[in-house]
From TrEMBL:
SUPFAM superfamilies: Chorismate mutase II. InterPro entries: Chorismate_II_sf, Chorismate_mutase-related, CM_dom_sf, CM_II_prokaryot. This is Chorismate mutase related enzymes. Residues 53-144 form the Chorismate mutase domain. Residues 1-30 are annotated as: Disordered.
Length: 157
């Protein structure tokens, strides 16, 4: 059996929202195989590339699963940024500084604990939350009209 499969084309809208299925085109021209995720396992009814227990064990299937996870990540990042925009509006109204070191500490600490409990690298999660918080501050700065972010050259503001 020819098991090579083209990279699946995710059919999800780029605008976001609930994402339950994707489709791919196999090398033999088979199109439109629906993929659903159920507790992390991809089930593809009737797909010849599925494993005997119905789980996907090939590269294309795993990449389709990655596509799903990537979109969930992007949806979560979009929601986080949107919430920070609203936080920024409240801070502007109430004259609260954008940068809150205590809160930033708590967010980092919580993420590190999650990493430890879930077998992730704490250094990676630290860098990830540095990026997320940096973007939050940038967005809040645009809402509050302040400049809270560290200078590019690392010098004092
Ligand atoms: O909790 C806040 O006050 C936020 O603005 C959110 C956030 C974050 O990204 O988690 C961003 C900037 C603050 O310095 C602390 C935390």
């Amino acid at each position: 059996m020819n098991r090579s499969v083209d990279y699946p084309s995710a059919t999800r809208s780029r605008r976001g929202g609930a994402y339950r299925s994707t489709q791919w085109t196999s090398a033999d021209g088979t199109e439109g195989i629906p993929v659903t995720i159920d507790r992390g396992l991809m089930q593809i009814p009737g797909d010849p590339h599925s494993g005997p227990d119905g789980t996907v064990d090939d590269l294309a299937g795993l990449r389709a699963a990655l596509d799903e996870v990537d979109f969930r990540l992007l949806d979560a990042v979009r929601d986080r940024v949107e919430l920070c925009r609203r936080v920024g509006a409240v801070k502007a109204r109430t004259d609260v500084p954008v940068v809150q070191p205590g809160r930033m500490d708590l967010v980092h600490r919580r993420a590190r604990e999650y990493a430890e409990d879930n077998g992730l690298s704490t250094a990676f999660v630290d860098r990830l939350f540095d990026l997320l918080i940096d973007e939050a501050c940038r967005v809040e700065d645009t809402v509050t009209g302040t400049g809270s972010r560290p200078r590019e050259d690392g010098g004092p503001r």
